[in-house]
Design a protein that fits this description.
Shape: globular
CATH architecture: 2-Layer Sandwich
Number of helices: 2
Radius of gyration: 20 Å
Largest sheet: 4 strands, antiparallel
Order of helices and strands: EHEEHEEE
CATH superfamily: RRM (RNA recognition motif) domain
Oligomer: single chain
Number of domains: 1
Structural class: alpha+beta
Helix content: 10-25%
CATH class: Alpha Beta
Strand content: 25-35%
Length: 105
């Protein structure tokens, strides 16, 4: 069972999470999510437990509990939603469409 773990301090390590979740079963995978550019933790991660029973025990015990001075968010991870590929997005500040050239009024 894959769990989402949120509201972590930026100093939390994979080993910290593994030790915390070992109290409720055997974590088979632990992964903190980091910023691609800086390598700094983004304050959340995922822990995969050996089975649903262990995962549910961890959720029951850790949801809202203090860990390193922060109240954890722990729940079953949802599948990642499909997002459009490509970068950028955001606001356009005029200047026309690059594929079509400048705007003509």
């Amino acid at each position: 069972m894959k769990l989402y773990v949120g509201n972590l301090t930026f100093d939390t390590t994979d080993q910290d999470l593994r030790e915390l979740f070992t109290q409720y079963g055997k974590p088979t995978d632990v992964a903190l999510v980091t910023d691609r550019e800086t390598g700094r933790s983004r304050g959340f991660g995922f822990v995969t437990m050996g089975n649903a029973e262990e995962g549910n025990a961890a959720i029951s015990a850790l949801e809202g509990k203090d860990f390193q001075g922060r109240n954890l968010t722990v729940n079953e991870a949802r599948p990642r939603e499909d997002r459009p590929q490509g970068g950028g997005g955001g606001r356009s500040f005029g200047g026309g469409d690059r594929d079509r050239g400048p705007r003509r009024y």
